[in-house]
Amino acid sequence: GAGVSQSPSNKVTEKGKDVELRCDPISGHTALYWYRQSLGQGLEFLIYFQGNSAPDKSGLPSDRFSAERTGGSVSTLTIQRTQQEDSAVYLCASSLQPRGSTTNEKLFFGSGTQLSVL
Amino acid sequence: LAKTTQPISMDSYEGQEVNITCSHNNIATNDYITWYQQFPSQGPRFIIQGYKTKVTNEVASLFIPADRKSSTLSLPRVSLSDTAVYYCLVGEDSGYSTLTFGKGTMLLVSP
Hints:
The complex is a heterodimer. Chain A has strands at residues 5-7, 10-13, 19-24, 31-37, 43-50, 65-69, 75-79, 88-95, 108-109, 113-117. Chain A is mainly β. Chain B is built from no helices and 9 strands. In chain B, strand 5 and strand 6 (61-64) form a beta hairpin. Chains A and B meet through strand 5, strand 8 and strand 9 of A and strand 4 of B.
């Protein structure tokens, strides 16, 4: 596709349920990021994938959060046993350049998944 | 960490030039300065990026002084559709970049 695609666009779940959020990055982009944005707040880094390297999970807030990226393309963010404080917009971004490149690093974002935990 | 500081909000009127300044006192030698724009219910969108002096594209200009400890995003002749949150980002100095987004500057353009 032409841009980063995320699904679903909205997800309502009950406390304690597991959810999976999907991200389709731009074709050819090797770097993939997940961010979380709570209402009125900035973006909080969650996890970073680069090619086949081990992901940087330093931003994941708890062990209930995990993510994988299959075949260097599609990524899934999983939240287990959801809590109300997990309610936020989850944004995915991809980049042609690896993180920390000396050349320009430009991220392309999807429209996000609005997660509401009741 | 190359943390950034920018105003929480700014108000303007249609047709005016808007300048949003970002401070980044601890910017590292290899760090670029990047600005993103975010509309409600959308992900951030890249606006402009620079390393030093001045960069201009069809959307905005970016002014960076010689010491690179700040940068100014300039939006010429804003319209109502420029109402958005604007984020200033710089890379971190470890060779890694978590591309930390702060709360940004909420620009409100009125008629």
